[in-house]
Design a protein that fits this description.
globular, alpha+beta, 5 strands
């Protein structure tokens, strides 16, 4: 199974935080998970609430477990609330179906992990995540 390495994970985080600074976003928290949903790297900017780790992780975890980015998960939740409620129950409440959870693919299209960003609006979280991912030459599905 393809996977993301620590060097790429840290690069994604740096790029995401740089985009957040450029856009003057609120303090961000960024997590990168491997293809199995395990944390590879995490960083929380000064001023970000400590509970942001769990939110970032849940955004990314939903992307890995469902094979779709947070934007698609949110649409699914709006169309099939019972399904997404059941999925969240199945995964112990570890899924937050909103933008900012990004499925991570290599250039061949294989899923190698996910990124979760939180701290600003969900749409801004997604913008920052995609910038960090694209800066590393990987493909994000938000």
């Amino acid at each position: 199974m393809p996977d993301i390495n620590i060097r790429k994970a840290k690069s994604i985080i740096r790029g995401t935080l740089a985009k957040g600074k450029e856009l003057e976003l609120k303090p961000l928290s960024v997590v990168v998970l491997d293809a199995g949903g395990h944390v590879i790297a995490f960083e929380r900017e000064d001023g970000a609430a400590p509970g942001r780790f769990a939110i970032a992780q849940a955004k990314a975890f939903g992307s890995i477990m469902l094979g779709m980015g947070g934007t698609a998960q949110m649409a699914r939740a709006e169309q099939q609330a019972y399904f997404m409620t059941a999925v969240n129950g199945l995964y112990g409440g570890k899924v937050i179906p909103v933008p900012g959870g990004v499925l991570l693919r290599d250039k061949k299209g294989s899923v190698i992990g996910a990124v979760g960003v939180t701290g600003d609006s969900s749409d801004n979280d997604l913008i920052a995540a995609m910038a960090g991912i694209e800066a590393t030459g990987l493909v994000g599905e938000g």
